[in-house]
């Protein structure tokens, strides 16, 4: 029991700053929703529409950036500083290019917003927010690169401090620009986009300054040279990063498609869905903190060849995810109405959101299990097969079930979200089985090599 407690303690020590960092990102989106929601249901629906499209695009860059963590983690376990710096330098180059491409894609997509079957007033309201938030993708992906590098070497606290600080700035700027305070013009929905852009610009700047001025971490820049630009390392980063991006894209895409179907049901359903998605994002980001700790700890033990410890760290993470998400499920089941009331005074929106929270309470544990199992798989750089599992679970299970339950069987918004629940259950089962199988294979390979 004493040994087991050590694994839980180390998981929590690493996971807690990641939780706060990721939860901070969700809280900013939530703050946008709460503050914009006071303007009305159409404004809240506008943030929902733009946010779904931008987030679903941005996760490509986030996934590719995340591929840096296990590679740095495995090199860190061997104390190979030159290799660590090489991955970091090439990741900065790769992710800068990716972020520029994603931003260009978002602007190319903008003329097609009106063709997604959404209310005309919602499309018009979202344009300013959409433009400004699209620009913020570039600095945010750069921040993610710094964050994943530091987490790979086991430091999760710096990203937490920077994220919380910039998020507080974002909320304050929201108040100024959305409502036109302190002499600023009233910008409404667009004001939330401007606040997001400014705060995200500060995030990579703050990270660079911290590393540059730190005696512990600044030596990494000494290895940065033009000659160290390596196609081989970029290829390695992509081999790990693009399947992670694929996993994230298909999950967010399934949610986005469900959001689009919510729009078919009207502005009320779309606004209620955005409230629920804000809360789901919060709990998902926190469970992703546990998954991040799993990636770090598993990658370190994998690099050292400690298969037993690797497995025990992963299983401790899974149990922690179950405990946390079970608590979240209870809160959503019993306090859905008060939570929705924070976002909007509209009684119709609150009523629909309350019903959606009952569905969320059912799938929270499966959501925590699937993301944590994915984190463990990333630690051993097993990412190709999980990408296929994600594709099947979210696009070929979740979306069709959502359409059947919500549209064909006319169960409405709760039916749409129930489909996503089915996809999460399927994904959690596949990912956990895959990790256990991979561990057995690694152990057999080690025995054979001996």
UniProtKB/TrEMBL annotation:
The chain crosses the membrane at residues 12-31, 51-72, 92-113, 128-146, 158-180, 186-211, 240-264, 276-299, 320-344, 356-377, 389-409, 415-436. One of its GO terms (biological process) is monoatomic ion transport. One of its GO terms (molecular function) is antiporter activity. Keywords: Antiport, Cell membrane, Ion transport, Membrane, Transmembrane, Transmembrane helix, Transport. The keyword Transcription regulation does not apply. The keyword Transmembrane helix applies. One of its GO terms (cellular component) is plasma membrane. Its main location: membrane. It is a multi-pass membrane protein. It is found in: Cell membrane. Pfam families: MatE (PF01554). This is Multidrug-efflux transporter. It comes from Butyricimonas faecihominis.
């Amino acid at each position: 029991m004493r040994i087991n407690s050590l694994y839980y303690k180390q998981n929590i020590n690493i996971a807690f700053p990641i939780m706060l960092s990721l939860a901070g990102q969700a809280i900013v989106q939530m703050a946008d929703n709460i503050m914009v929601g006071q303007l009305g249901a159409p404004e809240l629906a506008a943030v929902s529409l733009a946010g779904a499209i931008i987030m679903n695009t941005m996760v490509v860059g986030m996934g590719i950036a995340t591929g840096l963590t296990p590679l740095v983690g495995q090199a860190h376990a061997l104390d190979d500083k030159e290799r660590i710096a090489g991955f970091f330098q090439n990741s900065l180059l790769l992710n800068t290019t990716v972020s520029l491409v994603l931003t260009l894609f978002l602007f190319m997509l903008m003329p097609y917003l009106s063709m997604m079957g959404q209310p005309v007033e919602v499309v018009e309201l979202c344009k300013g927010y959409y433009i400004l938030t699209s620009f913020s993708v570039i600095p945010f992906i750069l921040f993610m690169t710094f964050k994943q590098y530091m987490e790979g070497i086991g430091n999760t606290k710096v990203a937490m401090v920077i994220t919380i600080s910039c998020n507080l700035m974002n909320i304050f700027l929201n108040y100024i620009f959305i409502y036109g305070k302190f002499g600023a013009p009233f910008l409404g929905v667009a004001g939330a986009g401007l606040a997001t852009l400014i705060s995200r610009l500060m995030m990579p700047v703050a990270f660079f300054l911290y590393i540059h001025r730190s005696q512990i971490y600044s030596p990494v820049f000494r290895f940065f040279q033009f000659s160290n630009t390596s196609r081989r390392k970029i290829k390695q980063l992509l081999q790990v990063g693009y399947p992670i991006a694929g996993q994230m894209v298909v999950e967010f895409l399934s949610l986005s498609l469900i959001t689009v179907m919510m729009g078919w049901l009207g502005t009320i359903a779309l606004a209620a869905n955005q409230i629920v998605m804000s809360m789901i994002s919060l709990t998902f980001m926190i469970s992703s903190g546990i998954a991040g700790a799993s990636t770090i700890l598993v990658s370190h033990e994998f690099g050292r060849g400690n298969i037993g410890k690797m497995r025990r760290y992963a299983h401790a993470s899974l149990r922690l995810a179950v405990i946390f998400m079970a608590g979240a499920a209870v809160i959503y089941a019993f306090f859905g109405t008060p939570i929705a009331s924070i976002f909007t005074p509209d009684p119709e929106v609150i009523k629909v959101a309350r019903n959606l929270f009952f569905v969320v309470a059912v799938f929270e544990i499966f959501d925590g299990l699937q993301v944590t199992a994915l984190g463990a798989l990333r630690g051993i750089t097993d990412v190709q097969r999980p990408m296929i599992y994600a594709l099947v679970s979210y696009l070929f299970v979740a979306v069709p079930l959502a359409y059947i339950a919500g549209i064909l069987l006319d169960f409405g918004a709760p039916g749409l979200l129930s489909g996503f629940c089915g996809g999460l259950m399927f994904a959690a089962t596949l990912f956990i089985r895959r990790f256990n199988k991979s561990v057995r294979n690694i152990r057999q390979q080690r025995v054979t090599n001996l």
